[in-house]
Amino acid sequence: MLGLEHDFRIVDTRATLDPDESSVATHGRDISPERLEREMLQAGIVRAVASPGQRAAGQSYLRANNAVARLSIDRPFVAFARLNGPRDPGTGPVSVVRNLRAERDDHHTRPDDVEQYSYDDRFHGFTLAPHVDGLPDEDVLSRLEDADLPLFVHAGQAFPPEAVETELLGYDLPVVLGSFGGYPLDAELMNRTLDLLDEYDRLYVDTSAVRYREVLERGVLEHPDRVLFGSGAPDVHPNVGVMEVLTLDVSEDLMRRVLAKNPARLVPALAEGADV
């Protein structure tokens, strides 16, 4: 695919880096750091948040997180630590019963892990995919609040806005919902998530896999400081995500906010000239 030509500085808040054979086998893809970096450059992306892909059930993310941090050195990647937990993210009565008895296992993220990641200058935030990795317990979430680093959350049909509000938004920390909180392609959930931005000052959304121009434009126009560009690479070539923003009917100033200013304000390591 040909490289894009534009005059914008672009940083990406949602990229996945599979650091080892286990991650590749679980997710069914094999994208090397070199290839991911090359595709980012083709799209004009100068820096990207990177976190591990899904691990096999019962495996810790500790080794995968450290591998992503190592692979980010001397590359335009900003490492985020991926978290997991013992609690069921569902909202039904079965989930409620399960969570009454949920206990943290050896492979689940511990409060001490969060503290270690927070003070390790290789990591600049956290990612959470509740629908595949479960929800952390209250002790871990409290440590996340203390750390006050961005938490990027895979939200959508399996973890809808109501669940996000109940489980996460009571904590005072910046939360970014991927895909406007409506993955996959659920415009109703996306609009409900945008409604939540009126109520929670530390809630943000990223543009990965939104695909609906009207929804994207609504988010950018109504909440110009809380929409962050995210490509969802390597599942989607970053060129696709960039073009979806560049073709919106919004001003260049708003595009610059989405493509670079907003992400860099939330994640300083994405800023121009940042030492990472």
UniProtKB/TrEMBL annotation:
Signal sequence, start to end: none
Sequence ranges assigned to domain Amidohydrolase-related in this UniProt record: 120-267
Lineage: superkingdom: Archaea
GO molecular function, one term: hydrolase activity
Gene3D superfamilies according to UniProt: Metal-dependent hydrolases (3.20.20.140)
InterPro entries documented for this protein: Amidohydro-rel (IPR006680), Metal_Hydrolase (IPR032466)
Record protein name field: Amidohydrolase-related domain-containing protein
